[in-house]
Amino acid sequence: MEISSKENTRFFSNNTILPVDRSSFKSESSASREKQSCCGGIKVFLGALSFVYFAKALSGSYLKSTITQIERRFDIPSSLVGIIDGSFEIGNLLIIILVSYFGAKLHRPRIIGAGCLIMSAGTFLIAMPQFFMGRYRYERFPSTINSTVNISPCLQDKSQTPLTSLEKSQAKINAGCEKEAGSSMWIYVLLGNLLRGIGETPIQPLGITYIDDYAIEENAALYIGCVQTVAIIGPIFGFLLGSLCAKLYVDIGFVDLDSITITPKEVQWVGAWWLGYLIAGVISVLAGIPFWFLPKHLPKPESRKDSSTSSEHSKFIIEDNKDQHKPYQQQMKIAEMAKDFFPSLKNLFGNPVYILYLCASIIQFNSLIGMVTYKPKYIEQQYGQTSSKTNFVIGLINIPAVAFGIFSGGLVMKKFKIGVLGAAKLSLGSSFFGYLLLLSLFAMGCENSEVAGLTVSYHGTKQMTDYEQAVFSECNAGCSCSKNDWDPICGENGVTYISACLAGCQASNGSGKNTVFFNCSCVGIFESSQSSSAVVGPCQKGNECPKMFLYFLVISVITSYTLSVGGTPGYILLLRCIKPHLKSFALGIYTLAIRVLAGIPAPVYFGVAIDTTCLKWGSKRCGGRGACRLYDSSALRYVYLGLTLVLGTVSIFFSVAVLWVLRKRSSPPDETLSANGERGTCGTKSRKDNFVNSDCLIQSTYWPEKETRL
Known about the structure:
- By secondary structure, the chain is mainly alpha-helical.
- The protein has 25 helices and seven strands.
- The protein is about 60% helix and about 5% strand.
- The longest helix has about 45 residues, at about 20-65.
- Belongs to the organo anion transporter (TC 2.A.60) family.
């Protein structure tokens, strides 16, 4: 055809009259126009899909970056935040089967466009509570809020406070209680995230299959690789956006910022978490617009019509595409297709390699999802870092390490022509060394902050135990203090006190962030004290903590890279050991199991475990337990890292079982497994061709939620 085309060009350029087969020329020119139309259409779709992947990855990672902000803003425990985080997976599961099965029969681009609108609506809904629940209130002693009334922090006699001031304060509290009692605004965040999950569902299955159906076969891998690359860039911007918004006060634009007496370093600080959701929602709306103008079908490339040159996966697709030319009445009915469902399911679960790998993946993703969800909280509480700096570090260091690890895994597979058995070894080695590195993080923690009455006694002579914690002492016995307040001050002795009242402070000077407390009886009795003054805000962590944080970052990045290297080999293993006609079904079951058994429960039980390490709970204005104000650093480290490591170790045992079954069933010449699970090779191709198969490589690059893991 190329020679004929060149001859036609020569014919027109020389203006020579030659006999021409008009029908042949017409078919060639129409084929050329079809090729141009196909390439143009698929590239437009590719650009639109890449932008959608960026939008969904950005909003998903931004949610992870705001976990601690949401917890503080709504005064809820970590376990409830875990339920909010898992609601995305629940929304996804509600329609994933319907979308995956019926979506291909409908207008795929428009379904993706509708999904983007639903996703944006959910994102906007998450931000809505900020505009209906009033201004954020944090615990502060009156003299630090630019008050003109000089009140002693240690209220030995309540007559010190003017009656009108007390009445006004109580009236405000009662009004706030009436408002809070009638609503639980965090439910809107949960429903919004649920909508996000519903809207995100059609993007991956319908978008990738659309490209695979209408792209030239040799370009399909490149196109989908571009989409996945953009999907990795999304979380970087998501966490950086989270870092920026965490620096801004939650009520920015609604209050005078000069009147704010807390800083981003304090646990009461809440950033402008809602602002990023508005930005992410606008991006989702823009991303969905192009899909409403794209066609249902694109012209088929000529190369995809030649089944003799197609790979195993392409042959399977071509056979299905032939059915598109049949009348609708002749195609297989839903009831007939349903008859094959249970036999296929039985066949799939009868494959020991698939079952063992599925179990290993479920347990490992429990480990990774729980670790990633609460990683910002762990860094903030363990190393005393701000939310802004935590998100910045994760977005700029950890996410690129994950991306580089996934790329390296695929590169190693291609460079060394690794087969199925080699892929199993590489995946196992990646997990083993990754969790081994994670073990070293136990030694890279900070000691508990010295908080009088919680971690040290008021005399500073010993560490406190759970049974000996007492916020009241002889030094503050004459003060009328509340044990529920959390308004920390830092004494000159380097010890943090829960409030100025519990520190026994008799006088104060200044206002706002510059308030200084004097004659603090509890500060003076501390054995290392030289004065009895204190300033607003908690004391900084120990001098060794910044160094430990640096070590943690280095090991964390190496661990993220090491664990990510096994992502691509693991997917190669999954695809190579399944019958060709069951691949899509097997991947659907795999994704479903990961979401149901890892994506939903992991954040919940990790949150419950983390809540057990809380030393000081905040109190809601109307009573009841709020968000945690102070964690036991040592207990948090052992629970967070220990749970992650235990789950990872169990997954390694399943991976070893996978390797054992593969060794038992594989033949020595070819380290591959047949599609039906018997001894031999996956097909008639060599191990080299078996790996280089572009279609399998395409699917192997997709690691569920990889952009937010680690």
